[in-house]
Amino acid sequence: MQLIPCPWCGPREESEFHYGGQADVAYPDDPAALTDEQWAQFVFFRDNPKGPFAERWFHSAGCRTWFRAVRDTRTYAFLPGSPA
Amino acid sequence: MSTPEHPDALWRNPEPKKNYDVVIVGGGGHGLATAHYLAKQGVTNVAVLERGWLAGGNMARNTTLIRSNYLWDESAAIYEHALKLWEGLEADLDYPILFSQRGVLNLAHSEQEVRDSVRRVEANRLNGIDAEWLRPDEVAKICPIVNVSGDIRYPVHGATYQPRAGIAKHDYVAWGFARRADAAGIDLIQDCEVTDFVVDGDRVLGVRTSRGDIGAGTVALCAAGHTSVLLDRLGVRTPLQSHPLQALVSELLEPVHPTIVMSNKVHVYVSQAHKGELVMGAGIDSYNGYGQRGAFRVIERQMAAAVELFPVFARAHLLRSWAGIVDVTPDASPIVGRTPYENVLLNCGWGTGGFKVTPGLGQAFADTIATGRVHPLLAPFSLDRFVTGALVDEHGAAGVAH
Questions:
Q1: Model's pTM, two decimal places?
Q2: Which cofactor does it need (chain B) (predicted)?
Q3: Option in A15, A50, A75 nearest B297 (CB)
Q4: CB atoms within 10 A of CB A27
């Protein structure tokens, strides 16, 4: 089974984690000021790269902490040095 | 003793020309079907560009389920259009595709699923689609190997049943479309990866490929899980996320399973191929991935569900498993139609369920390309619905996988 490096617990089995999709998607500062197009971008549109992808992961069956990691979507390998 | 003659090839393997009226990117089921129906409309100066070999991606990896019992009018219309074409496809292609209308059962395991399922049956009937609600004893009559006893973790409370649903031999379907498109003069070009576009303002002049630049009057994208990679080159964003979707087969067994059974709740669906393998699929792996492989724990969970529902499967063995890359959208409905580039048309987002719509999409997408007007059956699935909010939410009917 693929091991995922939890920044708090170290490498743990993939089944302990929950996927959170693209990282660094900030909630808009002033949602009411957005156009429909901008709101749609925030709600529905995410990057879908073939290669390194910064993601949110949740150690749901462990320390229950969300963290950020960079993973290669071609090989599924977590890249070393991902900022936590 | 003489060596047997190599059989005739079903299609040519031509060199790409400099220009085509229409370039279809992606030589899977949708690209080949679109080519076939373009030829039927008299449009034959067409190339289908495939980065690997014809129909070697999701067309080779899907579980071949065909049904039209979707909830909303928009989905029911396109999938039923496809099902009607499936019913005449062997004659149209003059090629055997082993289309077998053996029906599909969608199981309900909770009171809420019962309510949702009955609602979907009524919606299907209003759309002229064959649909019935069956009690557990009626489920057992149609598929005797389903465990309908009350002492399992998720008892079967009933099922929707679409008798006209079925399966077909996916490879034969692709070959049938390819053979007819080739015979009409359409160039099917393999080992030809589209890497970029030649852009002029809000038009595309052609595509850059691993075999040189190819000019195009219209570019039609049929690239499924790789659509985002192509659209990134054009700076066009979509809500697509590419995920691995796994499937597996058992060794060959005697005929034990007469229909198709799907269960959203326990995440498995099963049919038995003509040759005898049990063909099973699960839900997508949770993370984005382009690797055409998934985690074995997903397979394990799927097997646990299958053995619970079908105790007889405990004696079967897993023969092989694989994965495709599916392009999933937020509302589990496809994205088809226009892009910000006036001569680039988009067909993607069929996610886990693109096989069943192959002839319907091919016919309607070809009509869109030939006339320049988005076909009415495809119009509800435009990219701008994510801005207008006119979503076609089919998570219930798409379920575990289409």
A1: 0.96
A2: FMN; FAD
A3: A15
A4: 6
Concatenating the DSSP letter of every residue in B268-323 gives EEEEE-TTSEEEEEEEE-SS---SS---HHHHHHHHHHHHHH-GGGGG--EEEEEE
CA of B295, closest CA in chain A: separation in Å? 7
Decide if A44 and B289 are in contact by the 8 Å CB cutoff.
Answer: no
The span from the first CA to the last CA of chain B, in angstroms, equals 50
At B357-395, the pLDDT tens digits run 999 999 999 999 999 999 999 999 999 999 999 999 998
Quote the CA–CA distance of B262 and B280 in Å, as a whole number. Answer: 10
In the numeric block, which tokens belong to residue B14?
């031509």
Instruction: Please judge whether A73 and B226 are an interchain contact, meaning their C-beta atoms are less than 8 angstroms apart.
Output: no
| ipTM of the complex as predicted | 0.95
- Residues B165, B246, B133, CA angle at the centre, nearest 5°? 30
The model's pLDDT over B275-333, given as tens digits with 9 standing for 90+, comes to 999 999 888 999 999 999 999 999 998 899 899 999 999 999 999 999 999 999 999 99
- H or E segment to which residue B89 belongs: helix B89-93
Element (DSSP H or E) covering residue B179: helix B170-183
Report whether pLDDT(B396) > 90: no
Q: Does A61 touch chain B (CB under 8 A)?
A: no
Yes or no, beta carbons of B241 and A73 under 8 Å apart: no
The distance of B293 to chain A (nearest Cα, Å) reads 9
The pLDDT assigned to B402 comes to 47
What is d(CA B60, CA B53) in angstroms, rounded to the nearest whole number? 10
Tokens of B235: 């700076």
> Are the Cβ atoms of A41 and B287 closer than 8 angstroms?
no
Mean pLDDT along residues B198-202: 97
Question: What single-letter amino acid sits at B270?
Answer: V
Chain-chain contact of A71 with B241 (C-beta, under 8 angstroms): no
Mutate to test the interface with A, among B293, B299, B386, B391 (most CBs of A within 10 A): B386
Structural tokens at position A61: 């069956």
